[in-house]
Specification:
Blueprint: H1 2-6, H2 17-41, H3 68-78, E1 82-85, H4 86-96, E2 109-119, E3 122-131, E4 134-149, E5 152-158, E6 163-165, E7 168-177, E8 180-183, H5 191-200, H6 202-210, E9 214-218, E10 221-225
Antiparallel strand pairs: 1-10, 2-3, 3-4, 4-5, 4-7, 6-7, 7-8, 9-10
Helix pairs in contact: 3-6
Length: 239
């Protein structure tokens, strides 16, 4: 009897601080991934983009139809600046781009539209897709920087939209997956689609970004100027 009373169950080992910390880290990672996937699955609001809509819904708009290639060529030939509004660009895209999703998902994914959102200092290229009846959006930010040197003006197109916060310059924000803003490095997930889009407009890209001397992106519009700055016209270091 005394032996039986003296035998007590061994105490259960308590979890150490390391195990608790590991569990907390895993919990935070899982929660973060879940939150990210939630915002990726939610398409961003496109109703603020001027000219947003399907080609059929904007077919009867009263905005004059401007051929972007013709407008850019005339500006270069006659050496005068031209301003394109966000609405004009998006109406032109709706008339011009033949939307098609290639690859393994072609039967289940429809590319509904491509839109440009113009903000102060940057542009956002947005693609809207329909995945088995559910809308999804992806986007990429663009900034144009121009540097003047003894050899001329060097134009650089940066594939980012600036820092996430003033106190956090790196990494820059590259675009959005759904409503989630992503760092520039994550653009590799969608870069092929945007490269294919640019390949549709080789002439417009050449006229607009390679031959123009100056650029200015503002809220709802972009101004392109073929006139080379002189000493009387000072060129800002970036736009």
């Amino acid at each position: 009897m005394s032996d039986e009373k003296s035998e007590k169950p061994a105490p259960k080992p308590k979890a150490g601080c390391g195990a608790k910390l590991l569990f907390l880290i895993l919990l935070l990672v899982i929660t973060g991934l879940g939150t990210a996937l939630y915002f990726i699955s939610k398409p961003q609001d496109l109703t603020d983009i001027e000219g947003y809509g399907s080609p059929t819904s904007i077919a009867n708009v009263t905005t004059p139809r401007r051929d972007i290639k013709e407008v850019l060529q005339n500006a270069l030939d006659r050496n005068y600046p031209v301003t394109l509004t966000e609405r004009e660009i998006n109406l032109w895209l709706a008339r011009t781009v033949k939307l098609r999703q290639a690859g393994l998902l072609e039967k289940h994914v429809t590319l509904k539209g491509v839109y440009i959102r113009l903000e102060d200092g940057r542009a956002e290229v947005v693609m809207e897709r329909d995945v088995m009846g559910y809308p999804l959006t992806t986007s990429m930010f663009l900034q144009i920087e121009q540097l003047e040197s003894s050899t001329g003006i060097n134009t650089q197109v940066h594939l980012h939209g600036g820092p996430f916060h003033e106190s956090l310059p790196y990494p820059p924000q590259g675009g959005r997956l759904g409503q989630l803003r992503i760092p520039q490095g994550f653009l590799m997930l969608t870069m092929k689609s945007f490269e294919n889009l640019a390949a549709i407009f080789p002439t417009e890209v050449e006229l607009g970004f390679e031959k123009m001397a100056r650029f200015k992106i503002e809220e709802g519009k972009i101004t392109l100027d073929p006139r080379v700055p002189t000493r009387e016209v000072e060129l800002p270091s970036s736009f």
